[in-house]
Write a structure and sequence with these properties.
Helix content is 79%, strand content 0%. It has helices at residues 2-15, 18-22, 24-29, 35-59, 65-104, 110-124, 129-158, 174-191, 200-227, 238-242, 248-281, 285-296, 304-318, 320-339. The chain is globular. Keywords: Membrane, Transmembrane, Transmembrane helix.
């Protein structure tokens, strides 16, 4: 159970980043008539995570190519190998931009916030890999509790009634693109720790737990954003629209938690990239992290909201084939075994 929770926090730390925690990603995909979509997402996300962890456990992986090979074969594995690298690189740019945008709320210039964020990411890699995993076990519970507190207190104060009429759930297909978007970085991160997974019970705890937590937060978050949908266009970070009118201490706490959520996802992205290239470059993790952050900084000028609006829906569509292969993997694998 303890080990399973450790991986669950790693999954949540990878998923709840700048886009998700800020509310921008949720509103980009869900919105009105999305209750069923979030329920479907919860189920297929949990199944996908378990399959990825099972393959990582069986292959004892330390990077993502062997997992891709099992899922899509060698030829397509090379294509998705490149896609994962591009995805992690571009979405970590989004995280760095989000880190700068969050610090703007405290009157820190955007460019200075980005530099400070980049330095803090590199510093973590001066320690061991276990430090990255431990970071998630500390920050993610605080993030989940903080988000739930802000969202539920908003719901209680506004007396919003949740509408889950199945005849009005026309947005359900978005569950697949939303899951596809979030599954790609998790292949990279979970494959990097395949050697550390001791037994499949850990995968069951991590997959079910992370699915339930993300599904619950997504539903409450989406319902809250629906309540304030008219004012969302005025905010680059929708969470700040929810916190409007809250005491400053609450705003300060949630801003810090948001920044830390962005930080853990940026670290996970750099970790996934560094683990992929470590065997080729022979560079230590901190040097790889420094080089990667340096390469990413110029691209942050496009802005946080713009990057999410362009990149996230695009990756959600591109990754659909990979999601389908993950969900069908148990069936296809069983057929291969029977043929042998």
């Amino acid at each position: 159970m303890k080990s399973g929770l450790k991986w669950m926090f790693l999954i949540l730390g990878t998923t709840i980043g700048a886009g998700y925690a800020s509310g921008r990603e949720i509103w980009e995909f869900f919105g009105f008539e999305s209750g069923l979509a979030i329920l479907i997402f919860t189920v297929i996300f949990s199944i996908s995570i378990y399959i990825i962890m099972k393959i990582s456990y069986e292959e004892k992986t330390n990077h993502f190519f062997p997992v891709l090979d099992r899922l899509v074969g060698k030829k397509l594995a090379h294509v998705y190998d490149l896609l994962i690298v591009l995805y992690l690189f571009s979405t970590t740019i989004v995280m760095i931009a989000g880190g700068g945008a969050t610090l703007e709320a405290f009157l820190i210039p955007y460019w200075l916030g980005i530099i400070l964020f980049g330095i803090s990411v590199v510093l973590l890699f001066l320690g061991s890999i276990n430090g990255i995993i431990k970071l998630n076990t500390i920050i993610i519970p605080l993030l989940v509790l903080g988000l739930l507190f802000a969202l539920t207190s908003f719901q209680l104060s506004h007396q919003h009634s949740w509408d889950f009429d199945l005849t009005k759930q026309h947005n359900w297909p978005v569950a697949f693109t939303f899951t596809a978007l979030n599954i790609l970085p998790l292949i990279a991160v979970l494959s990097a720790v395949g050697k550390e997974i001791k037994e499949l019970k850990e995968a069951k705890v991590a997959s079910i737990g992370s699915g339930i937590v993300l599904g619950s937060i997504s539903f409450i978050y989406n319902e809250t954003l629906i309540e304030i949908s008219d004012s969302l266009s005025d905010y680059e970070i929708p969470l700040f629209a929810i916190l409007e009118g809250y005491p400053f201490i609450v705003f300060l706490f949630m801003s810090i938690i948001l920044w830390l959520a962005i930080y853990t996802t940026a670290v996970s992205g750099i970790f996934g990239l560094a683990s992929r290239f470590k065997e080729v470059t022979k560079m230590p993790y901190w040097a790889m992290a420094f080089l990667l952050v340096l390469l990413m900084l110029p691209f942050t000028k496009f802005g946080f909201a713009n990057l999410i609006a362009i990149l996230y829906p695009l990756y959600g569509l591109i990754n659909l084939y990979l999601l389908i292969t993950i969900l069908l993997f148990p069936i296809m694998n069983r057929l291969k075994i029977n043929r042998k």
